[in-house]
């Protein structure tokens, strides 16, 4: 059975999807982009600030399921410019313990929703 999760500490969905779905002890998150949940505005001041907003949104989604980044087993990062990989990776990495970091792929794409530069989704498992 699946449970739909929602938190007002992350951006509300902008389409026919939910922030996350919990199935058993596994959480599947939708991709997060750099929308400030309090204002609904995009946060695109720099790639560092944009990535931090994405990760803070993801943190809120994980917390709505009683989880943290330590529960994440798989991440997918979509970026519009592979030349920004090192900067995105640095911010992303600051949210994880390197020894227990999840599996991950990073993919450059032609365009992301609202023309953002980075989108991240995750799968997490409760202990």
Automatic annotation (TrEMBL):
Domain of life: Bacteria
UniProt cross-references to InterPro entries, sorted A to Z: RidA (IPR006056), RutC-like_sf (IPR035959), YjgF/YER057c/UK114 (IPR006175)
Record-linked Pfam families: Ribonuc_L-PSP
Family of the protein in this entry: Belongs to the RutC family.
Protein known as: Reactive intermediate/imine deaminase
Organism: Flavobacterium ammoniigenes
